[in-house]
Amino acid sequence: MELLEAGGREGSLRTHRFDLTAVGNVTFSIQVFVSFSLLLNLSACTENAAPPQIEPYVYSSAPAAARCEAGTRIGQAGVSDGEASAEGLRYHVRTPTNYDATIAHPLLMVYAAAGQSGLVSERMTGLTSMATASGFVIVYADHRPLGIPAIEQLGTISGSVAKKWCIDEKRVFVTGHSDGGTASLALAVLDKTKKVPAAIAPSAAGWTGKDLEAYQCPAPIPVMVMHGANDSLFPGWGAQTSAWWAACNGCDVAKTRKMEGGCVAYQGCRSGGATLYCEGAGSHRDWPDLNRVMIEFFAHPEKFL
Questions:
Q1: What is the pLDDT of residue 64?
Q2: Could you report the per-residue pLDDT of 173-222, keeping only the tens digit for each?
Q3: Of the candidates 70, 85, 166, 302, which lies 20 to 30 Å from 32 by C-alpha distance?
């Protein structure tokens, strides 16, 4: 598993190897790439951009499947910056402008690329408007240098959010780019966190198929893997990880059908195991133009079986 972290002088590229005990007695060698110039490229075009706008959500007239008792959730509607988990992880919350604190909302967690704050991640991904208009509470977590303990801590943020905002903890969806993609994928396989996400959509994640072979398949889970065809840092890794997930989800790895946005959906997957691979033309630093597809995938994964 490759973890991309900040540091070093501009233009430098150094590698470091760490041994971390991940699950039981299995030890994994994690090679960390340090590239400050890449981090500058990831955030330079987003640091000064206006933040995406939050939107209202058209609530259904049908009774909500899950609710919170009035007055039990004190989180405010709209924008809440600088929240922190019990472990000190900082995050930023966005709700629909007309947020109803008695209705349990799906939660979309967005994990940042190396060196990025959640606010920079928000500008880079541009997910806020579409997510809030679709009824999600969306949370952007600041980057934390990765390792198994750090990823497990990132997995606790959704529980912290649910203490203040009305969240359906059975509908927690996770995405992120680069280090954020690595964390998103890890949450679905680590023993302590694999029950947190209801579905994942990692982008430019630092995992290979060989890395995943060290883990047991979790129960079927919707997975949308996004990766750039010109990702020279992690070349071809998205195709490897999507194939592993397809096999875990009981799909026919030899059969796919074309979907919107350059995505392909594996066929014959088990119920609850929709598996999508989306390969764009971008490089490692590019967030894919697939926000609408992602939101639809999280809301209705059965459409992609």
A1: 82
A2: 999 999 999 999 999 999 999 999 999 999 999 999 999 999 999 999 99
A3: 85
For 18, other C-beta atoms within 10 Å of its C-beta total: 11
Pick the CATH number of 2-58+66-304 from 3.40.50.880, 3.40.50.300, 3.40.50.1820, 2.70.50.60: 3.40.50.1820
**Separation CA 128–CA 160 (nearest Å):** 20
Amino acid residing at 190: L
DSSP tag of 103: B
| Residue 67 DSSP class | B
Query: Which letter does DSSP use for residue 196 in this model?
Result: S
Pair 97, 55: CB distance under 8 Å? yes
250 dihedral zone (left: phi>0; alpha: psi -120 to 50; beta): left
Render pLDDT for 107-159 as a digit per residue (tens, 0 to 9). Answer: 999 999 999 999 999 999 999 999 999 999 999 999 999 999 999 999 999 99
Q: State the Cα–Cα distance between residues 166 and 145, nearest whole angstrom.
A: 29
The contacts of residue 301 (CB under 8 Å, 6+ apart) are 199, 222, 272, 274
